[in-house]
Please model this.
Amino acid sequence: MSSSPTPTATPITTEVQRANARYWRRNLFLTLALLVGWFLAGLGCGVLFAEPLNEHRLGGFPLGFWFAQQGAIIAFVVLILIYAVVMGRLDRAHRRQVARLLAEDADASSASSATEGDA
Model:
């Protein structure tokens, strides 16, 4: 059996922890905002606001009925697409930021090691 080297864990710096905290705050904000949109489209437009919406028509049907039957489904699909696009951008930005922070930390560590070796 060949033994492969055990990967060493990179220590997480305070800056990386802050970047992770910012990422999760943005993630939770996006999730909560989309859940509010889901509530408004599903329950709000189809049930709670049905009477005022029924004063208008879409394709010959009262708008409240249309939202309860088709509009909510379309809204849900749009919300999923928004989540996928925004989270993809957020994930890429977070990965770049963490990679930059870790590279800066590695550069600082190697510079301090080189300085200690010269002394």
